[in-house]
């Protein structure tokens, strides 16, 4: 049995609410929808401006580049991190889409040790030792400066978590105003019967804490530094 | 630990809070920062009142249909390979987690911050069954090393200064560096990394569970909750039964309200939505997932006039707005839920007996109600608690009873009044310094410990009036 004590528990809930158990509920209609008004009608370029401004608030560097110049941008960011040369990268179709295998090969010649997450024993161990993790944003939230990752076999949870620094490659086409649009996509997929990823990570810059005398400390358990690279893909 | 912390009576707890000058200064500065963060975040949105209305409507709708949404949630979790356990009491919830730990032969358990596991005393239960339990939130880790209860639901170690933290790290973990917050945090990172990698079991709370998909959502900044749910093979999430939302669209709204109201952030660094176990082709994430849904006193609030207390999203905005919390600090409430929401919720969850003073720890100024992002009428609930305590249950809180009795006696006859005001000047003399009473006796103590009380004028009004009239007569 994988659900325990449900019937008695929920019967008591209904009893306290003074009615029979409900097996159907109409989707509610709320009187206001302020979430849809945020950056309503903004163009992709206007959203980029919002994202870039928010990056300074969340202690995250921001670069804007083209597909052709992605290699140079990546090299620049890696140099700025000045840390370990061990890099773990998410895999999947977007690797090729953005020409990353070639870029990674060039960087290997410069002494970087790249590993692509490939659903194998050793991925987590490598990520734990890596200094840098590279991920692709699936949906990017301009308002909060958030990258949304649908973690899967190509895109392990550890990549954006264990290394001391992380880089998010943000295709311009993934930009939306705020979390509202991302939530709607997931909701609509659920309704179509496409279940959500086992882990959806909304990541906003590096990890931080204010637990010691309310001082903001950037970098606690997750990455200490974060960089976003926005790539023109439209 | 349980919901109740310590056995000291209310007056002593308050006294201890008021005498802790670092804590009071820290609380007051934190309140200021939290509040300005919240107000700034609200201002940025422009239509904060609409957001609050939406938040209230979502929470109301969910509570009214709680059986439906909890059923849907459990179905979805099951579909995604998880196990769901509905627990009526803290003991049932703990016993279930102990059983899972035993089956997994778990030695080490890592936890991310969770109020509900504090409430049910899960750590003690796991320790009893032989597990080492490591709290991984920085503030919680500090408190765990020091065996101290939390004093705030968002920043639990608010009452400690960095020197005390350095000392704790040095004594308990052999830390040798300075009290720089960055160095202290780097030490925690290094120490806890090992625990994350070694742990057999990860335990988290749950900010919101999404009924439509079975996702358990964690709202954090440090990244520890992601560690706890990515590395150990088993994940157990414990949630209060009210912590559910219908769909992702509602999730998004309550998360936005929470991060703005709690810390003034648009979103925290990590909003992590976990659904069931990892898929077969995935390498990280748990292979075994359990969701424990806890009643522990919540059910009896449902369907009563206090139902909206279950709407709480644990943002602490009311705590940060409360002038009483500002002066007495979190520990004075004697509950893991301090501040206005704690004063409303604690007597409901744990009974009036041990917590009948809490509804009086309020000036009824309604700053809490105004701050609440889901519009819980907190000060009205506090008034209702007082009515229940005083009228229906006929057991007035001692503090008020004594005060009223004393005042009644004191003011009952003009002669007594005359005498006592005259006497006050003389009686207060030993405590007077530069016309301010620094340490007052008895009932004045509560006031003068936090502020100097103006000394009664050398002449009382009647004397002064008599003399003035006399002077006039002479003139």
TrEMBL record, chain A:
PANTHER family: LACTATE UTILIZATION PROTEIN C. SUPFAM superfamilies: NagB/RpiA/CoA transferase-like (SSF100950). Pfam families: LUD_dom. This is L-lactate dehydrogenase complex protein LldG. InterPro entries: FTHF_cligase-like_sf, LUD_dom, NagB/RpiA_transferase-like. It comes from the Bacteria. Residues 49-231 form the LUD domain. It comes from Halobacillus aidingensis.
Automatic annotation (TrEMBL), chain B:
It holds the Pfam family LutB_C. GO terms for molecular function: 4 iron, 4 sulfur cluster binding; metal ion binding. Keywords: 4Fe-4S, Electron transport, Iron, Iron-sulfur, Metal-binding, Repeat, Transport. One of its GO terms (biological process) is lactate metabolic process. [4Fe-4S] cluster 2 binds at residues 322, 365, 368. Residues 428-475 are annotated as: Disordered. Residues 71-294 form the LUD domain. Residues 309-376 form the 4Fe-4S ferredoxin-type domain. [4Fe-4S] cluster 1 binds at residues 312, 315, 318, 372. Residues 460-475 have a biased composition (Basic and acidic residues). SUPFAM superfamilies: alpha-helical ferredoxin (SSF46548), NagB/RpiA/CoA transferase-like (SSF100950). Residues 384-470 form the Lactate utilization protein B C-terminal domain. NCBIfam families: LutB/LldF family L-lactate oxidation iron-sulfur protein. Belongs to the LutB/YkgF family. Is involved in L-lactate degradation and allows cells to grow with lactate as the sole carbon source. Has probably a role as an electron transporter during oxidation of L-lactate. This is Lactate utilization protein B. It comes from Halobacillus aidingensis.
């Amino acid at each position: 049995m994988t659900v325990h004590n449900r019937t008695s528990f929920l019967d008591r809930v209904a009893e306290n609410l003074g009615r029979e158990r409900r097996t159907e509920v109409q989707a509610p209609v709320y009187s206001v929808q302020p979430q849809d008004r945020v950056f309503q009608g903004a163009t992709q370029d206007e959203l980029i401006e919002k994202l870039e401004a928010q990056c300074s608030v969340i202690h995250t560097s921001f670069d804007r580049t083209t597909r052709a110049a992605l290699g140079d941008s990546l090299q620049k960011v890696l140099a700025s991190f000045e840390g370990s040369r061990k890099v773990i990268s998410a895999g999947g179709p977007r690797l090729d889409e953005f020409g990353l295998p070639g870029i990674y090969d060039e960087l290997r010649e410069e002494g970087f040790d790249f590993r692509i997450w490939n659903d194998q024993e050793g991925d987590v161990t490598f990520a734990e030792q890596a200094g840098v993790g590279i991920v692709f944003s699936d949906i990017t939230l301009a308002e909060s400066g958030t990258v949304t990752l649908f973690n899967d076999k190509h895109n392990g949870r550890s990549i954006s978590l264990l290394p001391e620094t992380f880089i998010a490659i943000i295709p311009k086409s993934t930009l939306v105003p705020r979390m509202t649009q991302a939530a709607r996509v997931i909701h609509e997929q659920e309704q179509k019967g496409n279940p959500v990823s086992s882990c959806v990570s909304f990541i906003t810059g590096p990890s931080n804490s204010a637990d010691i005398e309310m001082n903001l400390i950037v970098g606690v358990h997750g990455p200490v530094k974060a960089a976003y690279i926005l790539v023109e893909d439209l | 630990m349980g919901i109740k912390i310590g056995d000291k009576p209310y007056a002593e707890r308050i006294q201890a809070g008021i005498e802790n000058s670092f804590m009071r200064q820290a609380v007051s500065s934190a309140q200021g920062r939290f509040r300005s963060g919240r107000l700034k975040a609200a201002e940025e949105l422009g239509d904060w009142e609409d957001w609050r209305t939406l938040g209230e409507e979502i929470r109301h709708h969910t509570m009214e249909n709680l059986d439906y949404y909890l059923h849907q949630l459990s179905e979805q979790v099951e579909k995604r390979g998880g196990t769901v356990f509905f627990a009526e009491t803290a003991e049932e919830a703990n016993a279930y987690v102990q059983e899972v730990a035993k089956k997994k032969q778990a030695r080490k358990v890592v936890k991310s911050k969770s109020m509900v596991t504090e409430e049910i005393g899960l750590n003690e239960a796991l320790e009893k069954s032989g597990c080492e339990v490591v709290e991984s939130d920085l503030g919680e880790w500090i408190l765990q090393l020091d065996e101290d209860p939390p004093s705030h639901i968002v920043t639990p170690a608010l009452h400690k200064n960095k020197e005390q933290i350095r000392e704790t790290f040095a004594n308990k973990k052999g830390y040798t560096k300075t009290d720089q917050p960055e160095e202290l945090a780097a030490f925690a990172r290094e120490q806890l990394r090992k625990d994350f990698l070694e742990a057999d079991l990860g335990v988290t709370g749950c900010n919101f569970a999404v009924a439509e998909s079975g996702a358990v959502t964690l709202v954090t900044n440090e990244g520890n909750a992601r560690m706890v749910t990515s590395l150990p093979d088993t994940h157990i999430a414990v949630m209060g039964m009210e912590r559910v939302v219908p769909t992702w669209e509602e999730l998004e709204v309550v998360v936005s309200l929470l991060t703005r109201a709690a810390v003034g952030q648009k979103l925290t660094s990590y909003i992590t939505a976990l659904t069931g176990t990892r898929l077969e082709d995935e390498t990280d994430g748990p292979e075994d997932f359990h969701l424990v849904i806890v009643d522990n006193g919540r059910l009896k609030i449902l369907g009563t006039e206090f139902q909206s207390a279950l709407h709480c999203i644990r943002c602490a905005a009311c705590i940060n707005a409360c002038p009483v919390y500002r002066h007495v600090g979190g520990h004075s409430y004697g509950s893991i839920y301090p501040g206005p929401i704690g004063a409303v919720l604690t007597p409901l969850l744990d009974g009036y007996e041990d917590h009948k003073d809490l509804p009086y720890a309020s000036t009824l100024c309604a700053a809490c109600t105004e701050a609440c992002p889901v519009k819980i009428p907190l000060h009205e609930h506090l008034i209702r608690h007082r009515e229940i305590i005083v009228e229906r249950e006929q057991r007035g809180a001692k503090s008020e009873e004594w005060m009223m009795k004393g005042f009644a006696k004191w003011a009952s006859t003009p002669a007594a009044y005359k005498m006592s005001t005259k006497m006050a000047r003389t009686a207060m003399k030993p405590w007077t310094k530069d016309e301010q009473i620094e340490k007052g006796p008895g009932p004045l103590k509560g006031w003068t410990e936090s502020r100097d009380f103006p000394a009664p004028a050398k002449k009382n009004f009647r004397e002064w009036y008599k003399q003035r009239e006399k002077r006039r007569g002479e003139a």
